[in-house]
Amino acid sequence: MSEVQSNAENYLNLKDQVQQLSLYVEKLADRMPGVDQAGAIESTAQTCSLESQAVNAARQGIKLRRQRAKLFGVGLFAEPGWDILLELYVARADDYEVTVGNACIAASVPMSSALRWCQMLEDRGIVHRYHDTADRRRRFLKLSDCAYEKMNRLMVRFVDQ
Which end of the chain is more exposed for a tag (fewer CB within 10 A), N or C? Predict the structure, then answer.
C-alpha cells in the first residue's frame, strides 16, 4: 500500500471517528439540561483536532529521526526507549498492533539492546507484552493506558504551543 493510500485511509478513519464522537456528544448534551450542544461539539472537535495533530507530530518525529540517521549514520544518535514509545503511540492512535520485533527495529539499536529496552518499559508498566491469538510464537507490545495518556498530553502540549 502506498503512503498516499495509507494517508487517505487514515484521514477517512479519523473523519469517521470525529463524526461518531460528535454524534455521541450531541446525545450526551440532549440528556443534560443547560448544555449548549454547539459549544460541546466545537470543544470536542477542537480536542480531536489537537489529538490528531499530536499523533501527526509523533509521526513527523519518527520521520525526522529516521532521516537524521540516514544523513549522519546509524548509531550516532540513540534514544531507543523514546523511539519505541513514539512507535507505540502512533500505532495505538492508528489502531494497529506492533510486534516486539518491529518495536525493536523502531529503536534503531542492536536487537539485544532493543529487547532490554522493551523489557525495561514493560517492567515499569509503560508497555504491555501479549501473545498473538493466531500465532502464539509472535508477541505484541502496546502502550499502557496510563502511558498513552501521558504521551498524548506531552504531544498535545507540543503542538499547542
Answer: C
- Between helix 111-123 and helix 80-94 the angle, nearest 10°, is 70
- Supply the angle between the helices 100-107 and 111-123 in degrees, to the nearest 10: 110
Beta-bridge mates of residue 129: 141
pLDDT tens string 109-152: 999 999 999 999 999 999 999 999 999 899 999 999 999 999 99
Indicate whether 40 pLDDT > 50.
Answer: no
Q: Which amino acid is at 112?
A: S
Contacts of 111 by beta carbon, 8 Å cutoff, 6+ apart: 104
Q: How far apart are CA 148 and CA 118, in angstroms?
A: 16
pLDDT exceeds 60 at position 33: no
Collapsing DSSP to helix, strand or coil, 32 comes out as coil
pTM of the entire structure? 0.66
